[in-house]
Design goal:
The radius of gyration is 24 Å and the shape is globular. A three-stranded antiparallel beta sheet has the order 1-3-2, with helices on one face. It folds into three domains: about 90 residues, no CATH class; about 200 residues, Transferase(Phosphotransferase) domain 1 (Transferase(Phosphotransferase), domain 1); about 70 residues, no CATH class. Helices cover about 45% and strands about 10% of the residues. Helix 6 runs antiparallel to helix 11 and helix 10 packs antiparallel against helix 11. It has 15 helices and eight strands. By secondary structure, it is mainly α.
Length: about 400
C-alpha cells in the first residue's frame, strides 16, 4: 500500500519533492581546467559515461557541452600572462584549432586573454563539495557528534543509491573522493520542514551528487594502472588482477573514515595491502555517537580484502537505512530470543506495518498544513519503508550477525 502511495504522491505532488523535480531553470557550467589533450579526453570520457546512464537523483546530469574560447577572468586558477601551450592535435580537431588561431589573430593580445576549454552545462548548481563540508564540520563533529554522524549516514545513503544505479549499466566510478561528491541545497519552499530539528541550516540535509567520471571503467575495459594517480585508494584485487567489480564498495569504505575526520587507512599505513589484513587491523573509529559502531562495522565489511566477501553496495544501502530508521536494538534482542524463522519474520513484518502506518499518518498531517512540506530525510525514509521487505531486513540482520 505504501509503495503505491509513494509513487502516486510523487506524480500528484511533484513540487513537494526536490528528489524528483528541480524547480529552478538556472543552469550550472563546468570548465575543464586543463587545455592538455589528455585532460580533455578524460573530460569527454566522463561526459560519455554520464550520458550513457539513465537519469538518477544522485548522479550528475548534463544538458550539453561544447568547446569554447573562455576568457581568462573565468579561469581563476590560471596565470593570465602564461603563454598558450601548443599541442599536436588529431585531424578531427585541427580545423577547429586553425579556425581559432585565425579568429584570435584578428585582435591583438586576444590569445593571451582566452583559453580553449571544454565547457559542460549541468542542471544542478552545487554550493560545495563533500570535502568542503567535512572540513568546515570538524567543530560540529566535536560539539554535536550525534547530529553530524547522522548527516554522514544520510549522505552515505545517497552515495550508495547513486552507485547502485551504476551497477545495471556495468559502470564503476573508480575515483570516489570527497571532492568528486557535490552538494546541492534543497531549494526553499520544497524541503522546508516545520519540525524544529530541521530548521537549522547547519543540520539541513543536502542532496548529494556523484560527479567526475573521468576514471570510470566499463565492464570490458582493461586499464593501465600507471595512469591512475593515487593507488592508495585502490582495492587489493585491482593491483593484482585488474578487477574493478567492487572497487566502488572499497572506496566507499575509505570515505567513511574520511567523512569522520579520520585519514585513509591505506594512505596512513600502506603496508596494510601488502599483508593479509583483517577487519581488526583497520583503525578503530572513536565511539562518539550512536552511529559510530555501526559505521565501523560497515567500513570493515566494505574494506574486506577479499572482493568475494566484500558486501555489495546495495547491501550497504540497506544497512545504512537500518542504522538510521531501525530496527533498533530492542527489536533485535527480541529476534535473538526467537528460535523459529517464521516467528522472526512475523516480528519484522509487524514492525514494517507499524512504521508504514505511522509514516502515512505523518504524511496526512503535513497534507493538512499547507505551509509544511516533506524534507529530503523524510522522503529517504519513505523510500526505505516503501520498498523494504522481510527478506531484505533478515539478510542484513544475518549479515551483521545481529541475531
Amino acid at each position: 500500500m505504501l509503495r503505491d502511495f509513494f509513487c502516486a504522491y510523487q506524480e500528484r505532488c511533484p513540487l513537494l519533492f526536490p528528489a524528483f523535480k528541480l524547480l529552478s531553470s538556472i543552469l550550472f557550467s563546468q570548465i575543464c581546467k586543463s587545455q592538455a589533450k589528455a585532460s580533455q579526453q578524460l573530460y569527454y570520457h566522463s561526459l560519455a559515461v554520464r550520458q550513457s546512464l539513465a537519469v538518477h537523483f544522485n548522479i550528475q546530469q548534463d544538458c550539453g557541452h561544447f568547446l569554447a574560447e573562455v576568457p581568462v577572468r573565468m579561469l581563476p586558477w590560471e596565470d593570465p600572462n602564461a603563454p598558450v601551450l601548443e599541442e599536436e592535435e588529431d585531424e578531427d580537431s585541427s580545423d577547429i584549432q586553425n579556425a581559432t588561431k585565425r579568429n584570435n589573430s584578428t585582435s591583438k593580445g586576444t590569445s593571451s586573454k582566452h583559453r580553449s576549454r571544454v565547457v559542460v552545462i549541468t542542471r544542478e548548481v552545487p554550493y560545495q563539495t563533500v570535502a568542503d563540508f567535512v572540513q568546515e564540520s570538524a567543530p560540529r563533529h566535536t560539539k554535536s557528534p550525534d547530529i553530524y554522524e547522522r548527516q554522514v549516514c544520510l549522505l552515505l545513503l545517497q552515495l550508495c543509491a547513486g552507485l547502485n544505479h551504476l551497477k545495471p549499466h556495468h559502470v564503476t566510478h573508480c575515483d570516489l573522493r570527497l571532492e568528486n561528491l557535490l552538494l546541492v541545497r534543497c531549494r526553499q519552499g520544497t524541503s522546508v520542514n516545520c519540525e524544529a530539528e530541521n530548521t537549522n541550516p547547519n543540520t539541513q540535509l543536502a542532496r548529494l551528487i556523484v560527479s567526475n567520471f573521468s576514471q570510470a571503467k566499463q565492464k570490458s575495459q582493461v586499464v593501465d594502472l600507471e595512469v591512475l594517480r593515487d593507488q592508495s585508494r585502490l582495492a587489493p584485487e585491482i593491483i593484482t588482477i585488474t578487477q574493478y567489480k567492487k572497487c566502488d564498495e572499497f572506496q566507499t569504505g575509505i570515505l567513511i573514515y574520511e567523512m569522520l575526520h579520520l585519514p585513509n587507512p591505506f594512505e596512513e599505513n600502506p603496508e596494510l595491502k601488502e599483508k593479509e589484513y583483517t577487519r581488526t587491523d583497520l583503525p578503530v573509529i572513536p565511539k562518539r555517537s550512536v552511529y559510530s559502531q555501526g559505521l565501523q562495522q560497515l567500513a570493515g565489511l566494505l574494506l574486506h580484502p577479499n572482493p568475494s566477501e566484500r558486501i555489495l553496495i546495495s547491501d550497504a544501502k540497506v544497512y545504512l537505512q537500518c542504522l538510521l530508521w531501525g530496527p533498533r536494538d530492542d527489536l533485535l534482542q527480541t529476534l535473538n530470543s526467537l528460535s523459529s524463522t517464521a516467528e522472526r519474520n512475523n516480528v519484522l513484518q509487524n514492525w514494517l506495518d507499524l512504521k508504514r502506518t505511522l509514516l502515512m499518518i505523518k504524511f496526512a498531517e503535513k497534507a493538512i498544513d499547507t505551509e509544511c512540506s516533506v524534507s529530503l530525510e523524510v522522503w529517504l525514509c519513505c523510500q526505505y519503508l516503501a520498498f523494504a521487505s522481510v527478506e531484505s531486513l533478515s539478510h542484513i540482520v544475518k549479515l551483521l550477525q545481529l541475531q
